[in-house]
Structures are given as C-alpha cells and as structure tokens.
Amino acid sequence: MVSYILQSGKCRECGAQIAPDHLAIELSAGLIGGLALFVAPGMEGLVGAIFGWLLLTLAALDVKHHWLPDQLTAILAITGIMASIVAAYPVLQDRLVGGLAGYASLALIAAIYKRIRQREGLGGGDPKMLGAIGCWLGWQMLPLVLLGASAVGIMVVISWQLRGEAVTARSMLPLGSLMAIAAFPIWLCQSAAGALFY
Predict the structure, then answer these.
(1) pTM of the model
(2) How is the chain classified by DSSP, letter by letter?
C-alpha cells in the first residue's frame, strides 16, 4: 500500500497504472485481519481472518467475473469444518448441518426458478458458497446471511438507479459477493458473543 502511494499508483518498472481495486483489496484484507484478531485474539482470530480473506477473494472474483471457483469454495467449506477444533461455537454438528442446508436451500430455489422461468436465475457457485459459509457459521446464521445479502443487494440496485442505470429482471447481481459482505460481520458478532448465539 505504501509503494502504491509512493509510486502514484503506477508500476515502478513500466509506469502502467495499477488498478485501484488492488489497493482496495489490500486495505480490506488488512481491516479483516485486524478486526478478526481484535474480536478473538489468538488462534481463533487467525482462523477468523482466514475466513474473511477467503470471502474477500471469492467476493472480488464474483464482482469482476461472476465466478466462484469450486476449489476456493471447497477450501472455504473444509476450513470451516476444521475451525471447530479451535472455536467452541458453532459446534461441529451445527457446521455440518449448515453446510448441507446452505447448499440445499439455494440449489432448490435455483431449480424451482429454472423450472418456472425456463432460464438460470442463480449461478452454480452460489449454493456451494452458502453451504461453505454454513460450515463456518452454523445453520442458525444462514437466514441472517441471506437477509444481509438481500439488504446489501437492494442498496446496490438503488445506487444503480440513482446513477441512471437501467435495472431489469435480467440485471445480474453477484450473490456470492453479497453473501460474503454479510457473512464476515456475522462471524465477528458470533465470535464476540460466543455462546449467546446458541
């Protein structure tokens, strides 16, 4: 970040402009790590930072390319299950149910939408990502993740309309990014409150 500022956002070798989103992602990564360790000092905070960094990576890919790689969502799910070793809550059973319920709920919605509208309404990575988030937060938090993602999505659509952009039934929102934005603050609250959530 310091070199970006000192070089005026340009590459030292060729002078090409570096995309500003690189700086935004680095700042976000630092903020995620700081917040995770502040809320849960020690190993649990480090594990939470990994959760946040994986969400940030997936969110960035979804915003730019509408792409949620299976390898990354699998890593997100596996690390969520493994996190039960250092975090007392949610318990492993709730994480496993969260993984299954998260995937199944969005997969069912996608299938019903396609049956009715005869076109895709959700990307194939979205159910997998919600399932992976469920492996971190447990099944109890899944409604809050979807509610938060919907609220952020509404704000995005309003901002589009205020800028004069057309919003139609075919406008694409990166649901994975919206879920990521909602999930990490929920983890922070969950870690801070501990057993109060359960």
Answers:
(1) 0.91
(2) -HHHHHTTTB-TTT-PBPPHHHHHHHHHHHHHHHHHHHHSTTHHHHHHHHHHHHHHHHHHHHHHHS---HHHHHHHHHHHHHGGGT--SS-HHHHHHHHHHHHHHHHHHHHHHHHHHSS--S-THHHHHHHHHHHHH-GGGHHHHHHHHHHHHHHHHHHHHHTT----TT----HHHHHHHHHHHHHHHHHHHGGGG-
